[in-house]
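Memo to structure team: turn this sequence into structure tokens by end of day. - J.P.
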Amino acid sequence: MLGSNLVKAQIGEPRNIFSVGGNLGININSATFTPTIKQGTLIGPNLGLSARYITEKYFAMICGAQIELNFAQRGWKEAFEEGDMSSYSRTMNYVEIPFLAHLAFGKEDKGMQFFIHLGPQFAFLISDKEKFSKDFEPQHQVTEQYGKKFDNKFDYGITGGLGVELKTKKAGNFLIEGRYYFGLADFYNNSKKDYFDRSAHSIISVKLSYLIDIIK
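Reply from structure team:
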């Protein structure tokens, strides 16, 4: 009897809430290079569609999953020495798909929730563009990246975020979230004969989302 009660205590309360909507935000982009390239801040848009399914509640924790289909502008902007008037940026446009565990705490039907997102993210490069200043003559030593085509268009990594959701009964759900993406794939080849040992994305995002409950 004691074992039966323990098993029952471990089973969450089932939920069946399916929500869809959209998201809009900005990426604060940089890229991790080895050898190191000194960088500034490159800001780009991040927008797309979201779908979420809440499956159960364990004690105070509401559990589910979320998937997105986004357009994201990534890349990097280089920083130069004082007195060097050169400027250079590389924008990279991706279609990306995050698969996220959704863990929330707070009001279920109406009110405020705090949530955590964590999971893998996959993306595919669809276009890129270099932007040079006039009379571009950089004084730093790492120049291999200029005019170099990307070897790998497929990207993957880990993303996670923290956010707040305002739930309403009639107007839908409003979310604001801060998210970080750590790229595990290199966009330049990294064999012994290649120049870069590491070339991956590092992104901080701020996102606003709106979701409507379709099934509840």
